[in-house]
């Protein structure tokens, strides 16, 4: 497996698809990277020569990818939280940040569904007895 910018790239994939495994390299900028490196889009990773791999490393190394990009994104989110902006508060509450609705959906951010509803009177009173609340209520009524 060739290693580009610290990421193992699968050998059987086409080069344009394989490069998207690198954080910060997406479908929109893969073609620009391959053009700058002078590599054909139709090649597979196992067909690349050592020179082509080093050229790819150099071209992608000039970009902000992987650790540097993750660090910058993390700093930006921390800044939003620190200044108390709306987006920062949404990050703190672990809710969608970009205006998505939360009444339904938003399961990836909010987690598994939990039903919250009215409790039956017996269940409610049993909970009070366990906590000793019922005794205090009787004393207050006297």
From TrEMBL:
Xref: PROSITE patterns: RIBOSOMAL_S13_1, RIBOSOMAL_S13_2
Pfam families: Ribosomal_S13
GO cellular component, one term: small ribosomal subunit
Chain segments annotated as transmembrane: none
Annotated GO MF terms: rRNA binding; structural constituent of ribosome; tRNA binding
Function (record text): Located at the top of the head of the 30S subunit, it contacts several helices of the 16S rRNA. In the 70S ribosome it contacts the 23S rRNA (bridge B1a) and protein L5 of the 50S subunit (bridge B1b), connecting the 2 subunits; these bridges are implicated in subunit movement. Contacts the tRNAs in the A and P-sites.
Subunit structure of this chain's protein: Part of the 30S ribosomal subunit. Forms a loose heterodimer with protein S19. Forms two bridges to the 50S subunit in the 70S ribosome.
Protein name: Small ribosomal subunit protein uS13
Gene source species: Candidatus Shapirobacteria bacterium CG09_land_8_20_14_0_10_38_17
